[in-house]
Amino acid sequence: MNFLDDLNQVQKPGRYIGEEWNQVLKNWGLIDIKILISYPDIYEIGMSNQGLKVIYELLNSKNDVLCERCFAPWSDFEQYLRQRNQVLFSLESKTPINKFDVVAFTLQHELNYTNILTILDLGGLQIWQRDRDEDHPLVIGGGPCTLNPEPVADFFDFFIVGDAEEVIHDVLDVVKQWKQKRISRVRLLELVSGNESVYVPSLYQLKQTKEGFMVPEVERKIKKSTVIDLDSALHPVNPIVPYIQTVHDRINLEVMRGCPKFCRFCQARVYYGPFRSRTAKNLIQIAKENYKHTGYEEICLSSLSTGDYPYLSELLNGLKQSFCDQNVFISLPSLWVGKNIEDVLGGFLETKRPALTFAPEVTSLRMKDIIGKNVEEEQLVKVVKFALDNGWKQVKLYYMLGLPGMKDEDLIEMKRFLLHLLSLKTKRRIRLKLSFATFIPKPHTPFQWMDFESRENIENQLYFVKKQLGSYKVDWSIRKYDFSLTEAILSRGDRRLSCIIFEVWMKGGRFDSWEREFKSDLWYNAFESCGLNLDIYLKPKWCKDSVLPWEHIDAGISKDELWKSYSVAKNKI
Fold first, then answer.
1. pTM of the entire structure?
2. Do residues 538 and 488 make contact, with C-beta atoms less than 8 angstroms apart?
3. Could you give the domains of the chain?
């Protein structure tokens, strides 16, 4: 069967043809275990994900494992497949995904959940875990959303929580036994559950909490896996080079994991923690290998807080020396405005300087104390002036609305600061991009007990800020309220949300993480048809002793520690 006939009928055929530079194509008949990995979004986004690159290179380094890729098809290609009764296939060998032994999803964003169902259905798999038998692939998940996997637990055989680099080897040993028919599927699930970082939802009964949530009765908590020595962990050095432009066409150099800050709203710090870094010597060698195998002309120093990387000067000097004749430029992700930030930026004066991104989140000292993030405005002004005087073209600032305790007085201080910033006298006229998003309470953070703010309050806060800055030329980016509301529900949801996700998908929900594709009415209608009240997820009546839907996951921070931080913030409101 030729899967690639008439691909000129769909947008960007390059999403589906495979055959890219550095792809790994093994002999299907000679390999014991066949694994398909999938990022449930389009190719351009999935191919930019560092975690997927790590797993792809790690698995294909094993002689007895074959790893191929698949991404969510855009609506035109989904229609193309359905009209021809064709099964969704892998990029490398064009094998239908239901022929693999394992289908593994990376779960980076809750609003990608409906795309998972599209991939399963188009791939010829049963959507619900309970409906799969011995002949079906195992469906597994990993990534940040496993800090609360309950909303999608009924679709998956098991989850790997945390860094998968070490856990995956133990899991594959058991999968091989199942593949060779030495054990049953049920026994496989029992055996993998013996790993402290593997969660098998089907092995546990559900009980109802006093607040009405459904939670699994787990005797032993599932402990997040952590690779302590990053220098010993695999970093991709031979990544696939796509034929079409992706979100990040560059070398992503992961300089560290975790973050030394303690922002009360941040879940990424929890998932990627504890704070660990790679040595500069190791990173320079990794960068050289990546450049040799890809030819990319940009190296991004990737992490949650690159300005805190302890060997930054050594790394920058080494990279400049290594690539002085290759016209390679070094870029930075969003930065923390610290006392050494100008020194950091001074190391980038000899490279391209398109834009700088900062996330102050709030302005008033009161709000900084509440959220646990203190960005000094005076320092930020100095940095912006330094950047614009030294060739940077744009400054992006990220703020949050609807944070616990936010008042008009806090917005007034934000207005004063932004007006001051816009009136700066610099060599280059300031190009300011302001991004506003609604605060979303996330599991395993001190703010997991907080309410999600009402639409009326968010609209009032946004109206106030825009009105004050209306006469200035500012590039606005504002996340839709319904979009954030749905993410908030899925973030703190329980097992009952599986029926909501399925209902939305059945009604045509696709690519919900794209605001222009997101259809809020599908979600509201699904809640109504399934008889679930939104407020139980948006304004839960939780106390310290409440059993939370994700409490069986041990993310490395105790509930008592989180409650103490929450209480400190609550007392400041």
1. 0.95
2. yes
3. 7-203 (3.40.50.2300), 235-333 (3.30.750.210)
